């Protein structure tokens, strides 16, 4: 009995709605109902941080793809046809797609962020070299394999159960309750696993769930909506494009004394997560470097594009690109290799970040030095020079890319999680957490954590779906912190059950210290003694003694805090470090290029699952290279997406990935705030991809030392060609 929903979306980027005519669409056989904003029983509002985003347009449309009506029909084909019969009369208004233009007319989504330390003005007077410039980076489409979608079914007692492709089941639950005007306990959200999210489903999964839930509420029937790829590309937000200005000052020894920047974030038509993304840009503005004097301002600019959103790195990559551009600019104008300036300014132990927190167990120098030595960077540079001398039409380039990324949601409140563990009377174990599996392997890690705690093997543990009725008030699976937060909550639950079992066995065995009872290899044993009991037997005994074999665990990251007005504090549980070396070969006739090799030294702490973590490094790297090189998101001045399909929006394929990728595990002591000292790994490797841009730039400079390329990513083959032949490559308009 399932019905199918589909959105009728705005076809112009900005305008006033005069009239909507649904008569033809309504009369199409198989159309069950056409829903508009007036049918919403609760609030017509899906904004996460700021309440500025209607689920369905009321008087005005603000971007192409903005949902206006929902068609519910017997099939998705009928819904599709019905959408084509809807007629909407709109008076167009002025369209702004450029963030700086929006800034200049005062269109901001949230308050500007200003953050400084030291005194840049004074510091610049002590600088021998001062460089100013502009840098911009483009947006990025998530291209999760599974598009956005949701399925709502009536759940009895007027409640609704929703299967949603989301990173944030609680965000879905909260948003749906708001739209339906009901309480959260009426809405159950269930997620088994999702086909990728990459940040695109941190909060942008909610509207589709709200739409099907609304239809289910009105019709009392199951309703499904899974977006077609074209709809998803058109309607959903992406990584924020940024336009930025920088000023960097260095002394005679190449110490960076001062750094200033202004970031103009293209936020799209509603705030979404933009203010939080912007904050992380500011926090990561000096990447892996210590800079004593910093002064940055950041603006979230309202434009007539779909609201942009979280994307792996969450604003960090955009900030780091500007810093790397500034250093590259300085190196080029001073006439030293970029890596000399990079190396000179790497973070050291105890150095303070812009936000006041000091480095602890800083691995910036360690990663860099090991990368330089183990992968023989000096030798590589010599052989590149030799290659370039004898190859007039092919040039190689190399870049080093250090990364330092803070782990925790920058919004301290979000850093908590819960888990539910049942040990059944036959000894089998069921676990539930708030973690969403999206391909990053968190399910494997959760099973490992529980199996390790109980001394069982992975097959003894059943991981349940992520469900808001079993585990409530979850933070989204994001900020790379999912395994840390949910793993620690899970460990807490396992330990509660374990301690009950230990006390029981200590009594049974007549021993004083319950902590000498340990669990491993499917057995309970007395440490240094002779007593032992099979796990199943111990559980059977506990069951007979009416011992509670279930537990709810909770975890809230200790130590972290941030003053929201000064942005000073200790926002991150810890930092992840690493260094990548990227080499490329440019075809100087065609402008094509290939990445020959990438070598990485990465700080995993004590990796819980090296295979999963290696997958994250490789995937993140390639996604970062895609953002910096191939993936060109183009909107024209009317706000039309010109790269609206996967034929003209190129993502990396097997031919564009580096020919070799080597990863050295920097086994460090890890951090007590990481799950079993296994550091978060989801986002940091994306930023290694930034090195791809500069490797290409360096190759171009060896062909044409006078090249006039602006720091404008992505470095597409077209831009490379223009750069090679001295055509001034402008910043985009
Ligand atoms: N890996 C896969 N395969 N699919 C994804 O959607 N999302 C990335 C990263 N790696 C993603 C991924 C993003 S944006 C984040 S924040 C983390 O995984 C989230 O998972 P974690 O917290 O478990 O690292
Ligand atoms: N990272 C990722 N997602 C988030 C964050 C963050 O710091 N804050 C809110 N959502
Ligand atoms: Mo990741 S951008 O924090 O979902």
Description:
There is one protein chain. The protein has 733 residues and is an alpha+beta fold. The chain is 29% helix and 26% strand. It has 18 helices and 30 strands. The strands form seven sheets. Strands 3-5-1-12-9-10-11-20 form an eight-stranded mixed sheet, sandwiched between helices. A six-stranded mixed sheet has the order 7-15-14-13-8-30. Helix 8 (274-283) runs parallel beside helix 9. The protein binds ligand MTE, hypoxanthine and dioxothiomolybdenum(VI) ion. Residues 167, 197, 199, 202, 310-312, 314, 478-479, 683 line the site of dioxothiomolybdenum(VI) ion.
Write the layout of secondary structure elements.
Blueprint: E1 3-9, E2 15-21, H1 23-27, E3 31-35, E4 60-61, E5 67-73, H2 76-85, E6 87-92, H3 99-104, E7 113-117, H4 120-125, E8 129-137, E9 149-154, E10 160-164, H5 169-180, E11 187-191, H6 206-219, E12 223-226, H7 229-235, E13 242-250, E14 256-268, H8 274-283, E15 293-302, H9 316-334, H10 338-344, H11 364-374, H12 377-390, E16 394-407, E17 416-423, E18 429-433, H13 442-454, E19 461-463, E20 466-467, H14 482-509, E21 517-520, E22 523-526, E23 532-534, H15 535-544, E24 550-556, E25 561-562, E26 569-570, E27 574-587, E28 593-605, H16 610-629, E29 660-667, H17 690-703, E30 711-712, H18 717-724
Parallel strand pairs: 1-12, 8-30, 10-11, 14-15, 18-19, 28-29
Antiparallel strand pairs: 1-5, 2-4, 2-6, 3-5, 7-15, 8-13, 9-10, 9-12, 11-20, 13-14, 16-27, 17-18, 17-24, 21-22, 22-23, 25-26, 27-28
The protein binds ligand MTE, hypoxanthine and dioxothiomolybdenum(VI) ion.
